[in-house]
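B., you asked whether I could sanity-check this one before it goes into the benchmark set. Here's the sequence:
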Amino acid sequence: MREVSPWLGWVDTLTGLEAKTRRTFEALDGLLERVIADHRRRRRPGPGGDGRPDVDGAGADDDHRDFVDVLLDVNEMDNDAGLRLGTDSIKAIIMDVFAAGTDTSSTVLGWAMAELMNHPDEMRRLQAEVRGAIAGKDADRRDVTEEHLDRMPYLKAVISETMRLHAPAPLLIPRETTEDTELLGHSVPARTRVDFRSVPFGAGRRGCPGAGFAAPTVELALANLLYHFDWPAPTAHGGGVGTPPVDLSEVYGLSVRLKTPLILVAKPWLG
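And here's what the prediction gave me:
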């Protein structure tokens, strides 16, 4: 409320939202402080730092470097370009990675599985494509890898359609036509949600820098779920002829999720 109407900020205090937000911030901030402090400790010269063995024999060599170490490199480097990340900036970037790079991917995966459960013909077609892509010389492979994704055009189409129907960050990107129109020979009725291919990741200068990583991550996760398991249809919610087995009602927030938790039964596929 405070961000929308500052003069109504007292409502957040009265309802307890202000205190809850502060407690959440303090918990997350404390966690990030500990993560950064642990990395700085390991990077110090001497026992437990700078690649030298510590008391349990573990080192901090390049094999143990991660994303936080890269951010600390920028924080500690001497340069004339004025590029230097402070601790608060490092915390913000880490939160961006977890919030924007993890929550949105799991949300898209959940919506994709829900839509596929409600469209069994498309589920079977997609499973046939995924399993067919690993047939032949790759039949002994235990998992779908990135090199297989180019053989799965229908998988990419399913994920694109999922993001069109259920954009994971709806406050940023949904668009819909205001009137009936025609585009490239196709009739588009008014109020049709239209997302270009890159729109789920934003566009222009505010575009998501992780788009090239997020897309194959979701593709690999969904492909492996469909490759290794068969998914029997759950009992339809609410009953009734023609009722879809999965309730697609939404619950709103910074990301839009299924209102009812998606509970499915996975049967291992033995090939």
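One thing to flag: The radius of gyration is 24 Å. Otherwise nothing jumped out at me.
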